[in-house]
Amino acid sequence: MAMETSDPLFPVRQTTLCLDIQGNKTDIIVSSYEDHFLVIVTQIGSMGTILHARKEEGVSIDPTFNVAVVFGKRDEPMLAACARKLIEHISNSGSSKALVLSLGLRDHSMGTLKGIVSAVIEKLF
Amino acid sequence: MNSNGGVEIANQSMNELSIKEQESDESVQVTCFSEFSDDVTLHFQIIRLHKQIYAWIGCNSAKFGHLYAAAPTRPSNNVSVTSLIGGDSDNTGLGIARRLVLKTGLNIVLACNIPKNSPMLEAKAEKKLMEKLISLGYIMRKI
Questions:
Q1: What residues in chain B have their Cβ under 8 A from chain A's Cβ atoms?
Q2: Residues of chain A contacting B107 with CB distance shorter than 8 Å
Q3: Contact flag A12-B109 (C-beta cutoff 8 Å)
């Protein structure tokens, strides 16, 4: 169940969601700032690994994206892939906001990450 | 027999209470508020996770700003702090993150868009944030 949790006068809109992904209780909070989306996904009570994903301003028609781990595990390509999927979706929906994604997960399996991507895209964006 | 029944009921209620406490401890809590004064509006967003607190401080705008992470370093009382996004030449917010952890012992991730060279504003934001963290019961004020 997704819940909007901010007062309409507050400049940052937030939505929280709690669901089960592959047997793990997962809290997802999406906050929308002026120039960024912050997506916190946690199963372990903390933010875990934090990634920063941006669309590059380029000359060509197809956008390119830059995804970097700024805190935490730098050797888990699935986490970066998750961030890339989400920034692509943000870009395709017409926004040029960047993304800060935090993934505090019990497992980094394909199933979990796919579940996270679809929950975020479907229910929150 | 009556007293035994009474004890059972009391035990059951206590078990329910402690389960509820655990659940509320583990659920995510989001708090937002704004402070208006002089010409400046400060916005605060606090997201409390079970083992960590994320906070955002906005000064007049909803830009994300720079991102910092700070945590106590065991076994000494040192605090480690680092900037994650932005914050290379402009470290506004770094001091706030560091002092928050120093005073509270919490594990904190802080985003802050306060402009540089505004020490009064920084101090005010830090004070408001501390007050709110205390009033939410996330920390006990260290004596």
A1: 26-28, 30, 32-34, 43, 45, 47, 49-52, 54, 56, 58, 61-64, 67, 69, 82, 84-85, 107, 109, 111
A2: 46
A3: no
Q: Write phi, then psi, for A57 (nearest 5 degrees).
A: -80, 115
Residues of B with Cβ-Cβ distance to A36 under 8 angstroms: 63-64
Residue A53 contacts residue A102 (beta carbons within 8 Å):
no
Contacts of B9 (CB under 8 A, 6+ apart): none
> For A73-111, how does the pLDDT look when each residue is reduced to its tens digit (9 = 90+)?
999 999 999 999 999 999 999 999 999 999 999 999 999
User: What CA–CA distance (Å, rounded) separates A72 from B114?
Assistant: 26
CATH number of A3-113, picked from 3.30.450.40, 3.30.230.90, 3.40.50.2300, 3.10.28.10: 3.30.230.90
Q: Which residue of B has its CA nearest to A14?
A: B30
pLDDT in tens, B14-41: 655 555 444 445 689 999 999 998 889 9
Cβ distance A100 to B67 less than 8 Å, yes or no, reads yes
Boundaries of every domain in chain A: 3-113
SS3 A96: coil
Residues in Cβ contact with B18 at an 8 Å cutoff, skipping those fewer than 6 apart = none
- Chain A residue at shortest CA distance from B33: A10
Please report which helix (H) or strand (E) contains residue B91, including its range: none
